[in-house]
Amino acid sequence: MVQDKIAKNKPIQIRIFPARLLQPETVEKTLNEIDHVKGVIRMLINGKSLPKKVMCGPGTGTDVNHPERKIIHVGDCAFELHIMVGEILVEVDDERAMDSVKKACERVLPFSFEFKQGNYMKRKPTLTDYGKYGFKSKTDERINVEDERLLGLIDPNAKAEDTFCMISTEQEK
User: Fold this and answer.
1) pTM exceeds 0.90, yes or no
2) Helix (H) or strand (E) holding 140
3) Radius of gyration of the chain (CA)
């Protein structure tokens, strides 16, 4: 199972930082290419927010019809982009998967990008994770979550429930 693999060896985290903000079509192609790489554990996208409503000024409360706020399809999941993607964080099993992710990005991204290895995502439960999922029992310090890939990815300020999308598990690939 995925949790057992994560526990056995320390996964490698990669930061893909394109020279430009990505269009929704490019994000979709890139994430799908990365998703096809064997050994990818989880992906996270970061970027500038695309609000649904004007937050301040004379038009406060009116809808923002931003052309970049589109629904994209990654794997078997469809979700609306709430951000202009500026970086992609990927966690992989080993060096071979890391090389495959880099090749996938080179195939899809038509411009330069930084590709760095480091620690970018939390590997242990955060306080927010404990608040959302709780403990399994009073004597057990483990967290009550079915898939440990979710740990450290919860945004405490997010208002929507659908702030993440589970694309597939390694068993399904």
Assistant:
1) no
2) none
3) 17
pLDDT band at residue 59 using 50, 70 and 90 as cut-offs: confident
The matching CATH number, chosen from 3.40.50.1220, 3.40.50.300, 3.30.70.1130, 3.30.70.100, for 2-121 is 3.30.70.100
pLDDT averaged over every residue in the chain: 82
Decide: 45 and 24 in contact? Cβ < 8 Å. no
Show the tokens assigned to 39: 């050994």
Alpha-carbon distance of 170 to 1, in angstroms, equals 8
Cα(116)–Cα(26) distance, rounded to whole angstroms? 20
Cα 108 from Cα 103, distance rounded (Å): 9
How far are the Cα atoms of 75, 81, 158 from residue 171, in angstroms, in the given order?
A: 14, 27, 30
